[in-house]
């Protein structure tokens, strides 16, 4: 691999951006394609988009040539706002599913290591955590506190960062009030429509553990269908 290509690849990976190394199997030439780059060949471009969405490397054929797509996609990250009962169930199953999970809650009575063993825990205000650990397109945010003072800032930050999933706990009426607050903070109509609220797939979940399953299922769906028109479930 060309040294400049390698340096760029490592730089993109450090920045948590998806990138695909495209190698022509005929002549051995390779190039780097970042997520969002325009690819002249439509078939190859679609294959790259699919590879980024699924995270799977493999051989594709376009315009009579074969290419190997080596996909480098950041590990999906799940930031949970609120050290609540749902979070206690959500954190371990999300880790099993391959997500880097962290919990943020300034309420020190809830954000304790004994309640979240082995999970990165921030007993701080979300705005302070986001300053040093910014959100990105491969991050999902689940706001679960029901407290606007805690939930609203990370929701707005997630909208601005283009997080692939944004969900918030609460009824339809609660969310309507939330939308009004976010609009005063500068959120657009298109942005607030990206919020899944009430959070989680509608599977009739009742207990914290069942709600956690519904949330994780919705997060996975959002991750695997991003970029597919009509496949992402519309948020309320």
Automatic annotation (TrEMBL):
Record Pfam families: XdhC_C
Domain XdhC Rossmann: 78-219
InterPro entries, alphabetized: MoCofactor_Util/Proc, XdhC_Rossmann_dom
Domain of life: Bacteria
Annotated protein name in UniProt: XdhC family protein
Organism: Aminobacter carboxidus
């Amino acid at each position: 691999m060309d040294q400049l290509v390698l340096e760029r690849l490592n730089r993109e990976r450090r920045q948590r951006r998806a990138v695909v190394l495209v190698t022509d199997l005929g002549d051995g030439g390779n190039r780097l394609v970042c997520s969002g780059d325009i690819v002249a060949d439509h078939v190859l471009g679609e294959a790259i988009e699919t590879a980024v969405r699924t995270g799977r490397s493999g051989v594709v054929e376009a315009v009579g040539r074969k290419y190997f797509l080596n996909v480098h996609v950041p590990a999906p990250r799940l930031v949970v706002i609120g050290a609540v009962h749902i979070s206690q169930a959500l954190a371990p199953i999300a880790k099993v599913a391959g997500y880097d999970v962290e919990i943020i809650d300034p309420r020190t009575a809830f954000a304790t290591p004994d309640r979240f063993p082995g999970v990165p825990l921030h007993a701080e205000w979300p705005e302070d955590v986001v300053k040093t650990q910014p959100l990105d397109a491969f991050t999902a945010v689940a706001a679960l506190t029901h407290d606007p003072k805690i939930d609203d800032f990370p929701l707005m930050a997630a909208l601005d960062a283009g997080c692939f999933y944004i969900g918030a706990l609460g009824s339809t009426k609660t969310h309507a009030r939330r939308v009004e607050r976010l609009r005063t903070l500068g959120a657009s109509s298109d942005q607030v429509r990206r919020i899944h609220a009430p959070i989680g797939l509608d599977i009739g979940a009742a207990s914290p553990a069942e709600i956690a399953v519904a949330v994780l299922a919705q997060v996975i769906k959002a991750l695997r269908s991003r970029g597919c028109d009509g496949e992402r479930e519309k948020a309320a």
